[in-house]
Specification:
homodimer, about 375 residues, alpha/beta, Aspartate Aminotransferase, domain 1, Aspartate Aminotransferase, domain 2, 2 domains, seven-stranded mixed sheet, three-stranded antiparallel sheet, 13 helices, globular, PyrdxlP-dep_Trfase_small (chains A, B), Histidinol-phosphate aminotransferase (chains A, B)
């Protein structure tokens, strides 16, 4: 038995468990495909037909490396948001950008503040740099702005994470409240404001983009409303110096040529986006109606999913399992306080039909077991 | 003027200069497209027609996230190489995997050994974790196996990088010599063996894959012979424990759905690969002939480019500039010893026609200036 080259102390201390289980892995384990894929907050409506045609047309160009500057996509994003090109960085989804932010602002042992039950991939990347997570409980199913601020102060955290609209609860804060939160943050604390669902909620929940404030990074994605989760492309908007700092460590050839071009085309088709937003709103109403008809309480949502209150955690887990066994892929939060819920993404009509058909049986099975 | 949240000491110490200039950036600066794109060692022959058709066909499926396990691609790679699925990890190109290896094995201040003038992206990622690069000069236009070994021992390096076949010189070591090198390495030193060009050189340069040796990571890519640089997909093969350690920090959703499926299809079309390998060999002969007809010395190459000895660094730089100004995109090594050369990638026939037409004028201009 030969010796292994030693890992660094930070990496050596990390668990070997793999934290991400995709629906494909579940299908492989089950030996059977899901009939409704409404668990990963994907957009079943797909990308714009213009985007699909463009991607198909450029498949043969994939022998060329991507532009390491992401120039055309940055120009398009900047024009779309009314900021400068120097205020935009593109990454391999928000996930890729979160990994970079962790490395930029978090030294080993530093406290990092998030909400208990918020995006696990953020936590994963903080652990990856040896950061110490401070998780603040949700309050009334919203991330607690006061609690986050207090934790930042107590733990002198260089970094705090907030998603708005929120995943997994679907809740949101109005812009005025977020602005107060931002103004109350220490200048030495960087805020990652994850706005993956920004296109799908009320515009009143989006503070104007203020790139003069050097301790806020806004992150958005093509994975949700734009229906392009599979191409892996997100972007961050911030003060120009902050954006330049990303250049120091990002994988410059990380975002595919396909993704860069698809992103440009997706932003150009705002009519399609509007149609998706309308269909998502309609789907949310339908999910809420199905839930209410079955005695579950739908929470208000500014996203492309609806979180359904099942009453308590043990029962909600049984409902999840019963739906999975009926070939309906959904997910649920697992932390205390949120674990009483299941989370159902807006799918196509026929997928919500299947959900409506299977929910009564799943509830009965959960009650009987 | 507001304060910026402080960067970590490691990131703060890094330069803000952006090290990657793509041909697109040069075209934007020039305001004019290149007529021959033969500078980035891409495969102008493109991906297999089967791969192109498959990519076009799945464009509409891009609303779905990628499989975070990269399961199907790992199974295909494993079968192709005769190793287990547990011996394969997939990343956003070799670049993405190099970034992870740096974080896994290099603590701040650790020495990392490479060759002076070898892959700059490796150096970039080592700098990104605060590693200290020890760069060993090439010997006779090959990476110096003896020099690398000596440096590893002197500096107690936890990590050493070797590309075989080599970029930017096109040279290679035979398998027997590499095996001796590997056997002489300390067990505590991890070797990254970058085999991006492995399909394009003699098979005698590829040691059998030995996953029982825990201090060797072999890296390969779809960017070169498979003609898929734009999709960003590479893989590493190693001991199962080493592969599990990648799971601790990799961006699990980093490799796009498009890339995973294209990779599977590309490996399935080995007939196309063989045709590309033959065309590349023919292109190398043509570039060598053009060089010799113009008094330049082509170096032997096991890659999809030919490095041409122009005599001295100042002259070679002028030749590069003269070719760029004639709309021929090529590159050249810049470090002492290698800088006497320019590097020309195998392109399509019409691109090599342009190179043949423009080289005499470029040489004359370089001599005259």
């Amino acid at each position: 038995m030969r010796q292994h080259p030693p890992l660094t102390p930070i990496i050596s201390a990390l668990p070997s468990t793999v934290p991400f289980v995709g629906p494909e892995a579940q299908e492989r384990d089950r030996g059977r495909a899901f009939r409704a894929r409404i668990g990963a907050n994907e957009s079943s409506f797909g990308p714009s037909p213009r985007v699909i045609a463009r991607m198909a047309g450029i498949a043969r160009d994939m022998w060329m490396y991507c532009d390491p500057d992401n120039h055309d996509l940055k120009v398009t994003v900047a024009a779309h948001l009314g900021v400068g090109v120097e205020n935009v960085v593109v990454g391999e989804g928000i996930d890729g950008l979160l990994s970079l932010v962790a490395r930029m602002y978090v030294a080993p042992g530093d406290a990092v503040v998030t909400s208990l039950g918020a995006y696990p991939t953020f936590n994963f990347h903080i652990a990856g740099v040896g950061g110490r997570l401070v998780a603040v409980p949700y309050e009334n199913d919203r991330e607690s702005l006061g609690g986050l601020l207090a934790a930042v102060a107590t733990d002198k955290a260089p970094l705090v994470y907030l998603s708005n609209p929120d995943n997994p609860m679907g809740s949101w804060w109005e812009a005025a409240e977020l602005i107060r939160f931002i103004e109350a943050l220490p200048e030495t604390t960087m805020l990652v404001l994850d706005e993956a669902y920004s296109e799908l909620g009320p515009t009143s929940a989006l503070p104007p983009i203020d790139i003069s404030r050097p301790n806020v990074i806004r992150m958005r994605t093509f994975s949700k409303a734009y229906g392009l989760a599979g191409i892996r492309c997100g972007y961050a908007v911030a003060d120009a110096q902050v954006i330049r700092d990303f250049e120091k460590i990002r994988n410059h050839y990380g975002v595919s040529r396909m993704a860069q071009i698809a992103g440009v085309e997706a932003l150009a088709d705002q009519d399609y986006l509007k149609s998706v937003v309308a269909r998502v709103a309609s789907g949310r109403r339908r999910i809420a109606g199905i839930a209410e008809a079955n005695g579950l309480k739908p929470l208000p949502s500014a996203t492309n999913f609806v979180t359904l209150d099942c009453g308590d955690g043990a029962f909600a887990l049984k409902v999840l399992q019963a739906l999975l066994s009926r070939d309906v892929f959904i997910r649920k939060p697992m932390v205390p306080g949120l674990d009483r819920c299941i989370r159902v993404s807006v799918g196509l009509d026929h997928e919500l039909d299947i959900f409506a058909e299977e929910l009564p049986g799943a509830l009965a099975a959960a009650r009987g077991s």
